[in-house]
TrEMBL record:
<comment type="similarity">
    <text>Belongs to the paxM FAD-dependent monooxygenase family.</text>
</comment>
<dbReference type="InterPro" id="IPR036188">
    <property type="entry name" value="FAD/NAD-bd_sf"/>
</dbReference>
<keyword id="KW-0560">Oxidoreductase</keyword>
<keyword id="KW-0274">FAD</keyword>
<dbReference type="InterPro" id="IPR050493">
    <property type="entry name" value="FAD-dep_Monooxygenase_BioMet"/>
</dbReference>
<keyword id="KW-0472">Membrane</keyword>
<dbReference type="GO" id="GO:0004497">
    <property type="term" value="F:monooxygenase activity"/>
</dbReference>
<feature type="domain" description="FAD-binding">
    <location>
        <begin position="13"/>
        <end position="373"/>
    </location>
</feature>
<keyword id="KW-0503">Monooxygenase</keyword>
<protein>
    <submittedName>
        <fullName>FAD/NAD(P)-binding domain-containing protein</fullName>
    </submittedName>
</protein>
<dbReference type="Pfam" id="PF01494">
    <property type="entry name" value="FAD_binding_3"/>
</dbReference>
<feature type="transmembrane region" description="Helical">
    <location>
        <begin position="12"/>
        <end position="30"/>
    </location>
</feature>
<keyword id="KW-1133">Transmembrane helix</keyword>
<dbReference type="GO" id="GO:0071949">
    <property type="term" value="F:FAD binding"/>
</dbReference>
<keyword id="KW-0812">Transmembrane</keyword>
<dbReference type="InterPro" id="IPR002938">
    <property type="entry name" value="FAD-bd"/>
</dbReference>
<keyword id="KW-0285">Flavoprotein</keyword>
Amino acid sequence: MVTKSVAEAPKLNIAILGAGIAGLTLAIALKTHPLFKITIYEKATELKEIGASIALGPNGLRTLEKLGLSDVISDENGFRGTGTAGMVYRHWKTNEIIGTDVHSDVKEWLHQTTRFHRGHLHGKLVEHVPSDGIKLGKKVVGVEFEEEGVIIIFQDGSRVLADIAVGADGLRSGVRQALVPDFKLEWSGWTAFRSVFEASLVGSIPDLPKDSAHWWGPETNFFSSRLGRNMYTVVGGVAADPKDPNARFEEVSWDETGEVNLLREIYANWNPVVKALTEVTPDIRYYPNFSCSAPLDTWVFEDRVALIGDAAHAHGGAYATGGSLAIDDAYALHLSLNSIFTRSDNQKPSAHEIGQALRLYEATRKPHAEKLLKVVHAGNAAKIEKIRKGTLEKDEELRARAQKGSNTGWLHEHDVVKAFEEALTASETIDASEDKVPARL
Ligand SMILES: Cc1cc2nc3c(=O)[nH]c(=O)nc-3n(C[C@H](O)[C@H](O)[C@H](O)COP(=O)(O)OP(=O)(O)OC[C@H]3O[C@@H](n4cnc5c(N)ncnc54)[C@H](O)[C@@H]3O)c2cc1C
């Protein structure tokens, strides 16, 4: 076999479809590899600061730090509060603290749960991607497979051939739609009302908690937090039975301008801090909550395509973990792809070898995401059942629930590198037992 130098070695063309949190993180992780050529295709025609607040837990923050992105996770860009708790739960009427989620093994300040304006997190990630590496106005509408690779079809009629395509195109993924046409998203019945505004507006509210806080009530919740760069966010909302034909908000579109007086009405009888927060909130937008009706059977298609982030596991943002999950997906895929390019001959890997790497990524991440989806679906079903029966949570039940906390250390402190190493060992054991020889192109 002829050994090629890195300079003359054929590059592996990797098309990342979607320039969101997952797609950008993957591009950053892969950009220094001399044998990968990365191009991101994004449907938006401009990368604007849209969205509201987004949280990253210790897992996502640690991963971004491993990628050298200290400016992205800095205190300037995001808000950590006093850094003592992942989440503080307060009573809707009395404002007293009734529970906390405390990280079990987070020693570094920069790894404490951090809250960002999504535009600021996204904008900082964009700065780490070469400016000619993102092709805008490229909405993916189809995918075809050929012997030499995968063809990506865009709405503008153009097509590109890649060795690997990564569907990082979010909740309403066009890549997933093309490959799994019967996939369904369903409305959970919850519609969030979100607002992000200058922190100076909350300056004169007495007793405003320093930390981010989640007030729990019998019918709905309220969240507020500072964000980086002197911004502030509030999130309220209403829960409905999604099958109720009269349910409000089923028809509203994501990010639609809402009616701020509605927010004020819903929380009119809550404690004075929440009430005051609703009064200074200048405007709101509606975000109906959608998640997948069932997990996908596979995230890997024809040894050429993998899904990451919300495209792979649309869980609806529960437990504020969607951003960190997307970041860890990207990191796991980067580790898996690197594992197929460790050969000294610098030959282009075969489709079969690429498929092995993609399946290694899937083995690292899918069980973790499925565990989350199970929890989310059970939680949604329980909430809908309560609404249908018209039963309101009693005060002692609410307090007991808050005292227990969310029990999400397994999510927020998940170690993606350890999970990857375990999946790698398991795959090597299978390969050895089957005495597999990797196929060549
Ligand atoms: C504009 C925007 C604002 C958001 N605001 C918030 C927020 O305020 N709070 C919050 O918790 N979460 C928000 N999210 C969702 C959040 O970013 C994700 O849930 C999470 O970070 C997982 O990231 P992701 O990369 O999988 O998906 P996303 O971050 O949603 O990224 C998907 C990317 O793919 C692009 N895309 C979609 N379809 C196609 C297609 N067919 N072809 C090519 N590109 C496509 C999208 O424009 C987007 O850039 C927002 C997402 C978007 C796109």
